[in-house]
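Page 42, continued from yesterday. The earlier attempt failed because a stray header line got pasted into the input along with the sequence. Redoing it now with the clean sequence only.
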Amino acid sequence: VATWISTGLAIEEAQIALLIEVRRIGRRSTETQRLDIARQRDRLQGQIDGFARSALTHLGEGFDADDEPEDLDVDILDDLDDDPADFTETSHTWTNSPELTVIPLPSNLGVDRCRRCMAEDLIPLEMSLREGQANDALHNLRIYLCNKAILFRTTVRQANSQALKTRAWSQVTSVQQAVSLHASIYTKTRKQMMKLEPGQDQLQKYKPLLREQLKISTAVGDPNARGQRNESLAWFWSVEVDLGGPDQSWNEEFYRVHWLRAKALRDRWREEMLLVTLEMDWTCKFFLWKTTIWGEHMQESLEKRLPGHGCYAGRQSHMYSLLAQDAQAAFQDLQNVLIEAGDE
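This time it went through. Structure tokens are written below.
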């Protein structure tokens, strides 16, 4: 059963890859590209037919593969700001294309229908496999985003001729297509997981992936660039971090740079918290000092029989006394918050 569901997940990934390929070439495709797409569709259709035939074995006789057909719903995520020519907005996909066929997985059938087909035991199994698929997609997404950042640092910015720039941008485009593929796979995987009634821990771990989170970080390519003071990594960079793989050194470099930046940001905020605490104390002491100074001026004015000056000095002393009381009352709650934050 696990092998059958794994085959279905692989078919979905192949569908997403083919959708992206069709979207990339657009309507102005060459004959060679159309033939390649046709071969991929034939191969994919054969896999879907075999998967649908084997579905009767696992889902029971109450399952009908042709019941309520609909097109596959996939959100293609890409970053068009780096190179607008990476992807085209037109698509050459028709409604009867195999890349839009919904295969009979438990997540596509729904929990209620699986229960009616006596296939409820397939739901936790697919959920477990979906978690692994999501982890793999996020891991590959981190790998290719690291590669993209390193390409800008080592290839694009050092290209000093038109030929080298063209070659460098072709490498960036290739990596960006891989980023789009794995981001789209994760988005589809999470959408399917939501149909399987996930737990609270899974909802907190697997968050929605936004298009702006696919931006590469410039901290590795240009650590001294402006506007990076409060920049932080997206949430998926801290989900089951694995520094292995063929690009282990670059991954370690990427995390090392951002770890140092995060540590510097934390140290700055710790210093800011310390300064704010001292500034609150300095403010209260300043008001009390002004209260004392104006009180002394009032006494001197009264001794010199200057009632007008004495009244003005007394009013100033009273004003600063009230300011000190208000500041102490207002800062008391903030100091408690800062103490709790410091303990954490």
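Notes: Residues 2-242 form one domain.
Reminder to self: strip header lines before submitting.
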